[in-house]
Amino acid sequence: MDTKAIKRAAEILRDSRHVAVLTGSGISAESGIPTFRGKDGLWKQFRAEDLATPEAFARDPKLVWEWYDWRRGIIAKVEPNPGHRTLAKWEEFFHEFSVITQNIDGLHAKAGSKNILELHGNIWKVRCTKDKNVTENYTVPLTEIPPACPVCGAMLRPHVVWFGESLDTGILSRAFGLSSSCDVMLVIGTSAFVQPAASLPLRAAESGAKIIEINPDPTPLTSYAEISLPGKAGEILPAIDGLLQKE
Ligand code: APR
Known about the structure:
Layout: H1 3-14, E1 18-23, H2 26-29, H3 42-45, H4 48-51, H5 54-59, H6 61-77, H7 82-93, E2 96-101, H8 107-110, E3 116-118, E4 121-128, E5 134-136, E6 156-160, H9 169-181, E7 184-188, H10 200-206, E8 210-214, E9 227-229, H11 233-246
Parallel strand pairs: 1-2, 1-7, 2-3, 7-8, 8-9
Antiparallel strand pairs: 4-5, 4-6
Bound molecules: adenosine-5-diphosphoribose (APR).
Adenosine-5-diphosphoribose (APR) binds next to helix 2 and helix 11.
């Protein structure tokens, strides 16, 4: 770990009042959840167009649900890691602190974070394809595939954003609002490949915020970062916290 850069990151954070965080699947990797584009990433094993598009769901809802049931099975077995836990702790430490996540695994909430914007939905929520009603469902494995709406009997779909679908406009505009008003944006565990999430740090930088990136690999955002910390979130975040708590 680059201790000099970690020290610098702690200094920048200590002088900040409003911190926003953008996370991707990398922050959950140390919990045992596969990323999407990493070595054994989901998109290396499966074709997104067969499983994560409205067309795929229309074509074969059973296949799509079997895949989400499998992913729910993996996520149900794991716990948040020190990366998630540090971010939850910092909600009390900073004047204003918010987590904007691309992750649908619910691990930020499980770690205790409250100020969370879930850009791509949540795998523990289901939506009725008829009345659009959203409910929570933690049944693992699902007893019925595809599951039916308990109210009207219509088919349920995962309450997640698939490729080709728009994000919730309210959530997205709040995410851009936070990006425009933060002093610092931490960008953690995302390849910054998918839009519009990848534009949030650019908005923050344009608005004068400092970008601190945590990722073992460089990304298209690295050149915008005031500090780039090459390493694992579950190791680097507690290290920064250790310095913050000292003073
Ligand atoms: N700590 C920090 N970063 C990590 C770690 C770790 N322990 N392990 C891997 N990473 C980094 C990888 O280097 C990579 O840059 O996390 C990033 C994960 O990138 P992707 O697999 O592309 O995942 P993500 O950016 O979250 O994908 C965005 O794409 O498939 C869609 O909707 C899906 O929300 C997802 C979106």
